[in-house]
Specification:
282 residues, alpha/beta, five-stranded mixed β-sheet
Length: 282
């Protein structure tokens, strides 16, 4: 009414909207309620956090970040304000994973057995491979993740699915981290992981290999979950012209955002980097 008072009379607008003139003037004098003012402030804060998260956070992570910043509000209120402001996480898309299994390769037992919680760093690493579409062709991506902090400690990308893809990721992890004797490395039964080259690399550093059971997709659920996150939060929204463009984009997402900024529910809504800092990981 206030915005249109030059075009229409207050009396006419009040009649159309079904409100009293006195109620309108009381509002002008009184102004917005404290609740409305606070909701407006919180919505602005929510919007800032949403943009900071590259628009991938839903209400649980935004609520966690607001608590980290000292805001006092309920998760329900955050969800309600997000809904009213039409602030939501990027739409997630389905994805399909395929694995090439070499029946002649040396299959290792599933020592991990879906035990995805560990109490120390460099005790259990999980690994997996996926592929990303570019106009130049597929880009294959291999990662090694430390289950303790969910940090990506090895990342390799290339145009081929040869064993070198996974050995590069493992070598990078070995260079970056302390490799303790008996460290468990879990993967699926892909031919790259059952190859002689990969087996020898693991044996040189006394790394114990573990592999998922046939047909049990949940045996390597944490590594697969990372690729789901990578695709539904990032690469599905990109149209890469060449593989090099995709490499740079994925590297930036992993090293700048995922490892250092993205809040993980499994480790108490902090980033892997912060979780390791709190736990003094060298």
């Amino acid at each position: 009414m206030r915005d249109n008072k030059k075009r229409f009379s207050i009396e006419k607008m009040a009649k159309v909207l079904g409100v009293s003139r006195s109620g309108y003037y009381d509002f002008i004098v009184r102004g917005e309620s404290r609740t409305k003012l606070e909701n407006r402030r919180l919505t602005e804060k929510i919007s800032e956090i949403h943009e900071m998260s590259r628009r991938v956070y839903g209400s649980p992570r935004i609520y966690a970040e607001m608590l980290r910043q000292g805001e006092k509000c309920s998760r329900r209120r955050v969800a309600k304000l997000m809904n009213e402001a039409k602030i939501q996480a990027k739409m997630k898309k389905k994805w399909k994973k395929t694995t090439q299994v070499d029946e002649k390769g040396e299959i290792r037992p599933n020592y991990l057995d879906q035990n995805f919680i560990t109490n120390a760093p460099n005790k259990v690493w999980v690994s997996d491979i996926t592929y990303i579409s570019t106009q130049e062709g597929w880009l294959y991506v291999a990662i090694v993740m430390d289950l303790f902090s969910r940090k990506i400690v090895g990342l390799s990308m290339g145009e081929s699915l040869k064993t070198e893809l996974v050995t590069k990721a493992l070598r990078q992890a070995i260079i970056q981290r302390d490799v303790n004797e008996g460290l468990l490395h879990h993967s699926d039964k892909g031919c790259q992981y059952t190859s002689k080259e990969f087996k020898e690399l693991a044996e040189n550093y006394k790394i114990k290999l573990s592999m998922s059971g046939t047909g049990y997709c949940f045996d390597n659920a944490v590594a697969e979950s990372f690729f789901h996150t990578l695709k539904t939060e990032h690469t599905n929204f990109c149209n890469y012209r060449i593989r090099e463009e995709a490499k740079n984009s994925i590297f930036e997402y992993v090293e700048v955002f995922y490892n250092r900024k993205r809040l993980h529910s499994t480790i108490g809504y902090v980033s892997p980097e912060e979780f390791e800092f709190r736990n003094e990981v060298a």
